[in-house]
Amino acid sequence: MRATNIISRIATDTAPPAAGPYAQAVRHGDLLYVSGQLPINPLTLRIESPTDASAQTRQVLDNVASILNHAGGSLQSVLKVTIFLTRIEDFADVNRIYEQVLGEDFPARSCIAVSALPHPDAVVEIEVTATLPSPVEVAL
């Protein structure tokens, strides 16, 4: 019998650290909840392309993938994506990069226009929920 009520906080140096009182991700059972990721380069801790939605989307998805990989998942294990955009006119550029990175098996998704994000140079933030192999499956 497996303990499903255990909550594990996930942290990796290959994605930007949490910028406040939250975890990069939290695992509960076979689900991983990845906090909203900004387009911050984990090596420089800066947003390298302040006005380029395509470059920011790629960086955000790289950050998300790093967290998923650290937890034992991948972009292919994502069930739900929520995208926050400060400029809805960037929707097509974000979609183009999203499709390139995620391939053809898309998860469920929402896209929300917001007035601002926590970093003034960020135009996109993405959070995901993913499924992970159970600890029993990993141990086998």
UniProtKB/TrEMBL annotation:
Cross-referenced CDD domains, in alphabetical order?
A: YjgF_YER057c_UK114_family (cd00448)
Gene3D superfamilies per record: RutC-like (3.30.1330.40)
The name under which this protein is listed is RidA family protein
Q: Which GO terms describe its cellular component?
A: cytosol
Hey, which family's this protein in?
A: Belongs to the RutC family.
Pfam families membership: Ribonuc_L-PSP (PF01042)
Annotated GO molecular function terms are: deaminase activity
Q: Could you tell me which PROSITE patterns the record lists for this protein?
A: UPF0076
